[in-house]
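Researcher: Dear colleague, please comment on this protein.
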Amino acid sequence: MSNLAEQFNSPQMGQLQFQGGGALAQASASREMEEVKGQIFMAKQFPRNVFQAEQRVLDTCKRPALAQVAMYQYPRGGQRVTGPSIRLAEAIAQNWGNLSYGIQELEQREGESVAKAFCWDLETNVRQEKVFTVKHSMKAKGSIKQLTDPRDIYEKVANDGARRLRSCILGVIPGDIIDKAIGQCHETLAGNGQGPLKDRIANALRSYKEQHRVTQEMIEAKFGYNADSFTEYDYVELINIFNSLKDGLSKVEDWFNKDDAKKQSSGLGDDFKAPAEPKAEVKSGAPNDIPIE
């Protein structure tokens, strides 16, 4: 029994164990290398047609469901920052073709994870990569909550990684393609909106109220005029702000003042008043299933 223990603890056995682990790591690295070679080979065998890829991107941006979540917006330093969302970046990457992109968790330590977001053009060998650290905690109701559930940790890493992934994809895709995609999304929202503009704005106001507790009065105070005077551009801005709140890029107080909820507003948002107050008559046939998100 002692001889077996001595053999197990001997330097020779430790060297064999190290060599065995190294062999496994080498085999894994070799397999990953062969997968990369296969991806590059297929990309070279079937290169993208730039004109067809561009047309696929623009055709995808003609879908209202994508156009509604294509842009984000948030305030910074007294200015308004806007840009393509992760949803639009992923849609462009899917239609551009021959790209390898994603988020990988490199290491999980006590209280934090080290992850990597990357995007690699297999044809041109252009690569964007960002390594970042994610704390296993989140702010809830004014206090810091430590995350212990593996699912919560996974979702936190995925959410934090989405912004880096968007940046990586936008760093690889040509800028003029991104600009054309954004322009097409604006045209889709402006010209291909389902239903009258008034109904779409009413649905947007309803979504703000139900999901973020933002009233019509608060929105009107921000824009400086009544909701019944909103244009297509105002509707697009409403969607961009909503996407920013949904993705956690900004907070309600960054955009709206709760004290403005007490101010008088137009009759467009009577749906949000208490049942005891008179409600505006709703025209029959108005679409009620147009989501903002």
Remarks:
- Residues 57 and 91 are 7 Å apart (CA to CA).
- The two ends are 68 Å apart (CA to CA).
- DSSP finds eleven helices and seven strands in the chain.
- Residues 1-9, 16-20, 271-293 have pLDDT under 50 and may be disordered.
